Amino acid sequence: MTAAVSKIGENLGPKEHLPERKVYTDSSSDDSETDANANATPVARAKTADASGNKSVVRTKRTVESLGERGRIPNSLYISVLIIILLQSCSGMYQVKTLQQWWASVTTSSRTIYNHFEYLKDLMNSIYMGDIRGTQEYVIAAVVTALVASLVGIFFWAPLRAGVWTGQRASRHKMHRYMGLLFLIQYTLAWVEFLTDYRGDGSQSFLTHSLAINGVVQAYSAYFSFKVLPKGVDAGYYSDKGVLSRDFIHENAFFQMMCLFGSVYYDSGRRELLRSTLPGKFVEILFIFFPYAIVRPFFPVTSFNKAATRQKNTRSSGLERFYEIGTTMIKIFYLWAKYFLGFHINFMVFLGIVKPQNQMFVHGLYLLNLGTVSLGVFLHTLRFKKILPAWFTFSVYLCQIYATFTALPYAIDVFGTHPKLCLVSLAGFLLNMTRSKKLHACWSVGTMLLLVLADIEW
């Protein structure tokens, strides 16, 4: 669900062919950039006849972009800044109390974590002192602790031990590294707050918006930090040896912007403020009905169909089948998620037909989505730097996106009670199969007219 259907690779329109690319080579780049250039630098080839005219000779010509050309500010950044200003100003965020709410969420969640450690300490002492409690309490504590410890080990301990945020490795791209660490901390606190202090009134703390802003900054800092990454519609994600394409890094910023919109729109109070102004209504219509028709063209598009095609041997022979199945699973999930967990949920919020008991479902899926957009890229970094095995990080990502199905009972209620709206979403889903941008745009306009003007009991 969520305002963003984060994806790793998507192709709304007609099939695209890999464009001729130019790569800037910088001898001062760090290990990730140097490896990227070594594995993925494209070349332009031309056939010419030799002196006798009998043979064709292949001459290789490398085209190079300057550092300045690779560092140009893309139009998407201007669009993103404009949208951020409109969202924040129209939803009443430019106030001192906004920061106070953020700090209150941070301190409350931190205190909750501390109290949980104290609880575990008391639980262990109860065993030592012979004051045995119920078996169920110990089992629940053990399962929760094991799950949390596993996630901490993957996302915090493994990169910390490898020097991602400390030592010589952390001397380059400091903003990107430490903003990434800040994202992980805020994401952890956001889940703690959601699970232990959910308000139930349709409102969210400022922590979710701060997290979304953090994600946008991360996306663009990656785009400007890693300039030597190859361009192309092959995302470079679906393999154990491939390098992320710069187009994929840039594309990720679009899904971060979708998350940013959700951080405002899924809060009932901020949503009403947004709707109370003309610019706010414009942003609402833009992201509810036309995110892929109007905003998406400012960002590049990667394709599932081009996965692992940029370079040969980007998948180990023993993992070829594993990545083929995994890529198909991701493709199926995101096609479903784009229309039913993205558009459909947004339509329900727009119409005001989300039941109070389903508000937690909406907010929970939103937090999951925030994670898939940013943590998926971080998992690739852990793989690329050989901190964790490739098959393992890819498996963690698959588990993360399919974790949405843990809320299936809520989903059945959400979709089953609004069959007409489901048909609208299904129509968009089927039209997406045609890969026609024009048909998708027509569906977007038609859906807007149905939801805004038609007198239908959804």
Topology:
Layout: H1 31-40, E1 44-49, E2 56-61, H2 67-70, H3 75-90, H4 96-129, H5 135-161, H6 174-196, H7 206-225, H8 246-265, H9 268-275, H10 278-289, H11 291-295, H12 320-351, H13 359-384, H14 390-402, H15 408-416, H16 419-432, H17 437-452
Antiparallel strand pairs: 1-2
Region (Disordered): 1-55
Biased composition (Basic and acidic residues): 13-24
Transmembrane segments: 77-96, 138-158, 178-194, 286-305, 332-354, 360-379, 391-412, 418-434
Low-confidence stretches: 8-52, 55-60
Query: What is the number of beta strands?
Result: 2
Shape category = globular
Number of helical regions: 17
Q: How would a textbook summarize the main sheet?
A: 2 strands, antiparallel
Order of strands, widest sheet: 1-2
SSE class: mainly alpha
Oligomer: single chain
Mean pLDDT: 84
Strand content: under 5%
Q: Termini, distance in Å?
A: 19 Å
* Number of separate domains: 1
Share of helix, binned:
55-70%
Listing every helix as H and every strand as E from the N terminus to the C terminus, the arrangement reads: HEEHHHHHHHHHHHHHHHH
Rg over alpha carbons = 24 Å
Transmembrane segments: 77-96, 138-158, 178-194, 286-305, 332-354, 360-379, 391-412, 418-434
Region (Disordered): 1-55
Keywords: Membrane, Transmembrane, Transmembrane helix
Biased composition (Basic and acidic residues): 13-24
